[in-house]
């Protein structure tokens, strides 16, 4: 699967041959992708009631032209699935018949079996369906869980390793990558706070989420036994997720944090460290030539990390599949507003799936009181909330309109499909 990216400011070019006139026009879009990079539309009118250089005289002409154009979008890349084409062709035949009945001018159209599928809302989703391979930035080196999350989110993508989370954000902002995949929370280790801060500092949009079952292994050089180990290195989240098990394994040794799990494995291998073990995936063991001393060493077997996918442009929210929306807000009167905000969701039966608070770095402290009684120093927070509704849902729109009244700052980080994949920890990393 592949797709072609078009900058938000650019447009999809359409060419229309109407009678002797070939008309080119652009449809500007605010979507991350052009699902149909090379679209050629041919339409011949015998009674030419179209103006040259434009599409039609009246709004009705223009609308019917657009309908015809949409039904005749020609794409080389979509003619592979014969069954689908047959279904589509039947649908398109109906559409064309209807259109022909409505139109006074008869249309000479392309052979029906050459007609491609009309664009649907699914074509506008962030999943790569057309064009070149999607480039997905992640933090870490090959074998990191984030790489596996990128593969789960976008099968066949080109995963681009980045040494820092910040770099993954910038890779998308600078068009080096199309998406970034970012861990935000783990069922055992909790939130990855840095990434909440980065979500606010950068202007990317959350366009999806994936939940990855994380199965940690204790890795060491071939021939090294557990008794030789006096240091365990890994990502701080991985160390936290395996804390109790390491102790149970008798590894009450120094634990050192490094940038990512697979990087820890690479470090042990590259430096031929015989006294150090790494916590990383089985894939990292394979990639860096290490042995698995213990498998499944996370403190709970159902260890899941939630990742979000980020893009330069938001996706169109839908209501036909389960959606989640992530927001961040603050208020000048601090936490006192929290109850009101939460009740805006409760009254509309919208479930919250996550609340996170982070220091309000622009205004970290608020002084309350006076000289006589003393001055209290309250910490100021930003609140991150995820709720189970799409921005296309009127309940969510009304809830946010109400939240906006109570808050001094509100930003929608993204509205995106919930990860509803069946639970199969054994199949994952
Ligand atoms: O170090 C990795 O392999 C990562 O992908 C990072 C990360 C994280 O930041 O939480 C991802 C999943 C696991 O929870 C452990 C580490």
TrEMBL record:
Ranges where the record places region Disordered: 73-93
One Pfam family per UniProt: PDT
InterPro entries linked: ACT-like_dom_sf (IPR045865), ACT_dom (IPR002912), Preph_deHydtase (IPR001086), Preph_deHydtase_CS (IPR018528)
GO MF terms held by the record: arogenate dehydratase activity; prephenate dehydratase activity
Keywords assigned by UniProt, alphabetized: Amino-acid biosynthesis, Aromatic amino acid biosynthesis, Chloroplast, Lyase, Phenylalanine biosynthesis, Plastid, Transit peptide
GO biological process: L-phenylalanine biosynthetic process
Pathway field: Amino-acid biosynthesis; L-phenylalanine biosynthesis; L-phenylalanine from L-arogenate: step 1/1
ACT domain boundaries: 326-417
GO cellular component, one term: chloroplast stroma
Function field: Converts the prephenate produced from the shikimate-chorismate pathway into phenylalanine.
Protein known as: Arogenate dehydratase
Native species: Ambrosia artemisiifolia
């Amino acid at each position: 699967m592949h797709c072609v990216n078009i900058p938000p400011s650019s447009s999809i070019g359409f060419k229309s041959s109407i009678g002797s006139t070939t008309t080119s026009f652009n449809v500007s879009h605010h979507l991350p992708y052009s699902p149909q990079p090379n679209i050629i539309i041919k339409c011949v009118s015998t009674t030419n009631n179209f103006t040259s250089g434009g599409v039609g005289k009246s709004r009705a002409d223009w609308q019917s032209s657009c309908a015809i154009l949409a039904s005749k979008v020609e794409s080389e890349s979509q003619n592979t699935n014969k069954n689908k084409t047959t279904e589509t062709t039947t649908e398109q035949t109906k559409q064309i018949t209807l259109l022909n009945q409505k139109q006074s001018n008869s249309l000479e159209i392309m052979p029906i079996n050459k007609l491609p599928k009309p664009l649907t809302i699914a074509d506008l989703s962030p999943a790569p369906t057309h064009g070149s391979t999607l480039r997905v930035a992640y933090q870490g080196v090959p074998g990191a869980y984030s790489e596996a999350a990128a593969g789960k989110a976008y099968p066949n993508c080109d995963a681009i390793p980045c040494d820092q989370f910040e770099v993954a954000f910038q890779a998308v902002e600078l068009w080096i990558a199309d998406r970034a995949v970012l861990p935000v929370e783990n069922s055992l280790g909790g939130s990855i706070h840095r990434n909440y801060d980065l979500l606010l500092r950068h202007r990317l949009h959350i366009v999806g989420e994936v939940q990855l079952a994380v199965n940690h292994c204790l890795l060491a050089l071939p021939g090294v036994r557990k008794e030789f180990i006096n240091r365990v290195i890994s990502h701080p989240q991985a160390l936290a997720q395996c804390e109790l098990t390491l102790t149970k394994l008798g590894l009450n040794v120094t634990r050192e944090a490094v940038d990512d799990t697979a990087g820890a494995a690479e470090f042990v291998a590259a430096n031929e460290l015989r006294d150090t073990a790494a916590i990383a995936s089985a894939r990292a063991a394979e990639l860096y030539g290490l042995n698995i001393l213990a498998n499944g060493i996370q403190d709970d077997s159902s260890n899941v990390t939630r990742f979000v996918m980020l893009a330069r442009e938001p996706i169109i929210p839908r209501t036909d599949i389960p959606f989640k929306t992530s927001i961040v807000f603050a208020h000048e009167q601090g936490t006192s507003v929290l109850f009101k905000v939460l009740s805006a969701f409760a009254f509309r039966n919208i479930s919250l799936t996550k609340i996170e608070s982070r220091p309000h770095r622009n205004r970290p402290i608020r002084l309350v009181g006076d000289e006589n009684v003393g001055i209290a120093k309250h910490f100021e927070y930003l609140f991150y909330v995820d709720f189970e509704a799409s921005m296309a849902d009127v309940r969510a729109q009304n809830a946010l309109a109400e939240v906006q009244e109570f808050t001094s700052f509100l930003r929608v980080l993204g509205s995106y499909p919930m990860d509803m994949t069946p639970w199969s920890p054994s199949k994952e990393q």
